[in-house]
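Structure in, sequence out. Go:
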């Protein structure tokens, strides 16, 4: 009689219990609420009208978030590299930038850039145009000298504010990622004749960027939500379109239900994506 060496299958009851233990109940509840909201949107004329109106701001919200986050990553990476620089001046300037920007609330920063720095920048452009006119460069000079403040789009001002505000936080993420790379790798690369810039580019940054992807994903979600602040400048994002509709119809409950549903739908999808990346990261590092 031959004795089988195969491992017996676990009882079905234990398998079911294991699946139930790992089941994301919060996600099931969120999906149920989402389905109920969708059903209401497709079956209720009031909700359908609100959704069609408010959804026009989705494109603006997504574009503002993508452009601002891309700019914040570029600026944050440069500032993060400066924060680990051996040059004292570069380090002090970068640290001053990070500490000052992080100490200002995002809404205050948004208003300051929109109504203080933006007009000041236009004055500089006008002055530069006048100097070009004095040099005989009429075409470019007239265009710059006559550039009005009102032509500086508020959406552009909002994007610049988000870039400046979030780059300070993202720079600290990059700084931590760069400093997490073992010193021995840097010394080994330098001993092979690589310059510090080559070490940073080919050894440190590829590993650091991979390590900071999850926190960068969390910052992207935070920026998507903070993009609603651009509504104070009149930019027609989701929040502003919802505010306008509610003010004209007094349907505040229904309108802000739809606004919250749109933001939650996007943030939950992004949160699941970030969680998926976090689960895959240990496998990549091994």
């Amino acid at each position: 009689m031959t004795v089988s060496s195969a491992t017996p299958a676990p009882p079905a009851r234990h398998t079911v219990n294991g699946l139930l233990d790992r089941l994301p109940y919060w996600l099931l509840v969120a999906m149920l609420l989402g389905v109920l909201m969708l059903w209401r949107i497709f079956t209720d004329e009031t909700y359908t009208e609100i959704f069609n109106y408010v959804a026009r701001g989705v494109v603006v919200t997504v574009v503002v978030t993508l452009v601002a986050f891309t700019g914040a990553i570029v600026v944050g990476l440069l500032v993060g590299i400066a924060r680990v620089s051996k040059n004292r001046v570069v380090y002090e300037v970068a640290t001053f930038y990070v500490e000052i920007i992080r100490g200002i609330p995002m809404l205050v920063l948004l208003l300051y850039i929109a109504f203080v720095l933006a007009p000041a920048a236009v004055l500089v452009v006008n002055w530069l145009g006048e100097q070009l006119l004095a040099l005989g460069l009429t075409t470019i000079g007239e265009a710059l000298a006559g550039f009005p403040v009102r032509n500086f789009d508020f959406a552009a001002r909002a994007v610049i504010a988000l870039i400046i505000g979030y780059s300070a936080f993202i720079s600290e993420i990059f700084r931590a990622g760069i400093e997490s790379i073992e010193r021995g790798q840097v010394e080994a690369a330098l001993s092979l004749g690589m310059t510090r810039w080559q070490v940073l580019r080919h050894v440190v940054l590829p590993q650091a960027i991979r390590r900071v992807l999850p926190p960068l994903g969390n910052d992207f979600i935070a920026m998507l939500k903070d993009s609603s602040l651009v509504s104070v400048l009149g930019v027609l994002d989701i929040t502003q379109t919802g505010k306008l509709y509610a003010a004209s119809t007094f349907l505040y409950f229904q309108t802000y239900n739809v606004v919250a549903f749109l933001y939650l739908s996007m943030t939950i999808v992004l949160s699941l994506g970030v969680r998926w990346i976090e689960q895959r990261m240990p496998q990549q590092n091994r």
